[in-house]
Amino acid sequence: MSDDRAAREPEPSRDVETHRAHLLRLAYRMLGSVAEAEDAVQDGYLRWHDRSREHVDDPRAYLSRTVTRLCLDRLRQARARREVYVGPWLPEPLVEEWSTDAAPLIEQEVSTALMMALERLSPLERVAFILHDIFDMDYDDIAATLERSETACRQLASRARSNVVSARPRFQLAQDEGARLAEAFFEASRSGNATRLQALLTTGAQLHADGGGRRRAARRAIEGADRIGRFFAGMARKGFTARPIWSRRMRIDGLPGILSVEHDGTLQTTAIEPQGGRIRAIYIVRNPDKLRHLEALLPETVAERVSH
């Protein structure tokens, strides 16, 4: 291709790279999986590359529609897989460096509680809700994307909203307060002191641990400060809560948390959801299939000790 022709024609990869961050956010919110989100964006790129773009006025809108439809197909396939998933299912954690200058910890669109609530929705409800309530897309654009009427899309989003309203954060938390609670939980949960741990939790606190059948984890959610305290006390007596090889304070799905390599080499994320100065929920991901993308954050000498 001549230089003049190349200068006149749009470069498909440039369009995708320009909007990649947006497309990955969109796909992750829909799928709850970093790897699947990356695959959906890559498939979107291939479709963009293979089609004529002469009449595409808005590459971002076109790519968003394409990736949304690809995610919808994946969601329908994922429902069957998750019905046989071993233990609680949690989304693959998005991890960010901790910074006192960063945005408020609990962000509505990435909270783990909201991502879990989205799992209760049908694929169409989930997509309509995410596009409208999180990405501020107009209903006429959603209708075009889903190939449904605008009225149907409003109904889908409304049903979804009524199902997830209790999972949407209603407050923000100062960074230093989140750090204090995360560190206090991390220490108390490993000490075996049930009373000390229970004092950090709300009465109806919940523990969700995702091992996916690959790593040791509670097979069901544990509810109540007393039960959670006794659970960690029992783990400590059995030697399962020994000091980790390495740990680092991080933001995990917008929540205060810890990325750690446990004493047995298990890579783990632990995130807490605060409420009124205490902890209302704990989210622990230990399934190695959901954490591979985090190994790049580890020091080389630590990464070598991670078990797979």
Give a nutshell description of this structure:
It contains twelve helices and seven strands.
Order of strands, main sheet, comes to 1-4-5-6-7-2-3
Radius of gyration: 21 Å
Number of helices: 12
Low-confidence stretches: 1-9
Return the CATH architecture of the largest domain.
Answer: Roll
* Fraction in helix: 40-55%
Net shape? globular
First and last CA, distance: 46 Å
- DSSP strand (E) fraction? 5-15%
Question: Could you tell me the mean pLDDT?
Answer: 86
Domain RNA polymerase sigma-70 region: 16-79
Protein name: RNA polymerase sigma-70 factor (ECF subfamily)
Subunit structure: Interacts transiently with the RNA polymerase catalytic core formed by RpoA, RpoB, RpoC and RpoZ (2 alpha, 1 beta, 1 beta' and 1 omega subunit) to form the RNA polymerase holoenzyme that can initiate transcription.
GO molecular function: DNA binding; sigma factor activity
